[in-house]
Amino acid sequence: MLGILLGLVLLMFLAFRGYSIIWVAPVTALVVGLTGGLDLLDMYKTTYMTGLAGYVQTWFPVFMLGAIFGNLMDYTGAAKSIAHWLTKVLGAKRAILSVVVGCAVLTYGGISLFVVVFAMYPLALELFREANITRKLIPGAIALGSFTFTMTAVPGTPQIQNIIPTKYFGTTAMAAPVMGIAATLVLFIGGMMWMTYREKKFTAKGEGFVEPEKKGNVEAIDYSLLPNPLLSFLPLLAVILTMNLLEWDIVIALLCGILLSMAVSFQKYKGFTKAVSTGAVGSITAILNTAAAVGFGTVVKSVPGFKTLTNALLNIPGTPLISEAVAVNLLAGATGSASGGMSIALEALGANFMQVAAEQGIDPQAFHRIASLASGGLDTLPHNGAVLTLLTVTGLTPYYRFHSCYYIRKLRNLLIRLINSDILYS
Fold first, then answer.
1. Which of 158-172, 275-289, 303-317, 338-352 has the lowest mean pLDDT?
2. CA dist., res. 221 & res. 149, Å (int)
3. Do 369 and 424 belong to one domain?
4. Residue 367 and residue 424 in one domain
5. Sign of CA dihedral 330, 331, 335, 341
6. What is the pLDDT of the chain when averaged over all its residues?
7. Are 31 and 3 in contact (CB under 8 A)?
């Protein structure tokens, strides 16, 4: 147990420091294996790599096609066209709501969260400038629309965080619709109330829009060149409807979206090959980041202390859904990844949760929805890749990260002074 906890803490610390999980995960897995009495070479070449390779085998088509679809929607201008139309309908007076809704529509349509960030930021900048709202609220508005209810709560969302649980619980993307809708209302209404409150606080202090010092992340948009927004909606609808109404596999649904995005913007065919190649290459890093975390989880599952950890999690007082929520949250927080943390938890405990569901008569759909929702909790810590990307694109300082580092340095300096003092030797 100590080795597992030590490995998790080390994984979180190194990820927090900004190191790639692709090499951090196997290093921390070695710590777990060493304290668990495993043969380290065999553990790495067999146990760890089996977990990593198995995840890639299962989910690479979804990651690759999702990245290609998002890249094509960005290249053709369809994503920006939809976002611009939505923000134009809602107006600058509702700048925050416009950004949230624009992000939500694109995310629910199957476009990658990272693509949505790049597509929405220039539009958000224009809206916040016109409404004279501080730029500090742009990351929150984009995150609320992209990283919350459309990522994990809305039934039928094609985001990977809603697809992964289907493998473990035999469910569909529409699992637990009532729970999903209730969670959506809580996240959307609660998020909007908080954003509105913060806007009023900034306005009361006289803090309005200030032009960014660096404009390297902002691309000028010629709206006259964007495709028709109604046609741009068709690929998104194709993904949602084929996956949920026709119950086609997510791979086929994404292929439909890709082909339709090409069809409605065929005049840009010369750049299709490059857009597809860029998306495919980008998906490799994305899936390896998650697969590396899953490999770590596979090693954890193989050491003797895992049984103790399993019993501790499953014996948390109350419904086993609480146990699942705690496990997914902690692992998502440790890895800084919603999909990575959830994959580790379900790979290790999915069978246990299914057994509990059968014994206690709990619908597996409830486990699906709770796992998805929990993955979007502690994964939003400062070392999360999406959070850092969002702050980088918007040109804002990840002050929470630096704030935390400040207190870590203070603690370190205090310990150094204590060691160097006479207190310990008196």
1. 303-317
2. 28
3. no
4. no
5. negative
6. 87
7. yes
Is 416 buried (19+), middle (13-18) or exposed (0-12) by CB count in 10 A?
exposed
Give the residue numbers spanning the domain of 417. 398-426
Domain count, the chain: 2
Pair 119, 226 in one domain = yes
Q: What are phi and psi of 166, to 5 degrees?
A: -60, -30
Say whether both 359 and 321 belong to one domain: yes
pLDDT in tens, 168-187: 999 999 999 999 999 999 99
Alpha carbons 146 and 120: distance in angstroms, whole number: 10
Q: How far is CA 215 from CA 99, 211, 248, 284, 420, in A?
A: 20, 9, 43, 29, 47
pLDDT of residue 397: 63
CA separation (Å) from 87 to 95, 201, 217, 221, 304?
8, 24, 20, 14, 55
Q: How many CA atoms lie within 13 A of 173 on its CB side?
A: 27
> Which amino acid is it at 76?
T
Residues 133 and 182 in one domain: yes
How far, CA to CA in Å, does 123 sit from each of 174, 175, 210, 219, 228?
A: 31, 33, 16, 10, 17
Q: What is the pLDDT of residue 11?
A: 85
Q: Is the pLDDT of residue 29 over 70?
A: yes
CA distance linking residue 388 with residue 410, whole number of Å: 24
At residue 347, the pLDDT reads 85
Do the domain assignments include residue 146? yes
Quick count: other Cβ atoms within 10 Å of Cβ 411? Answer: 10
Query: Around Cβ 406, how many Cβ atoms within 10 Å?
Result: 11
Of residues 245, 327, 124, the one with CA closest to residue 253: 245
Closest CA to 52 of 70, 75, 26, 81: 26
CB-side neighbour CA atoms (13 Å) of 180: 22
Q: Are residues 409 and 272 in the same domain?
A: no
Please tell me whether residues 215 and 265 are part of one structural domain: yes
pLDDT digits (tens, 9 = 90+) for 78-98: 998 998 898 888 887 899 999
Q: Which residues have C-beta within 8 Å of that of residue 31, sequence separation ≥ 6? A: 3, 6, 7, 10
Cβ–Cβ under 8 Å, residues 154 and 180:
yes
Does residue 332 share a domain with residue 357?
yes
The total number of residues shown for the chain amounts to: 426
Considering the domain boundaries, does residue 128 fall inside one? yes
- DSSP designation for 132: T
Does residue 341 fall inside a structural domain?
yes
> Looking at the predicted structure, is the pLDDT value of residue 426 above 50?
no
pTM: predicted TM-score of the whole model, two decimal places: 0.83
Token look-up 């969002």 returns 390
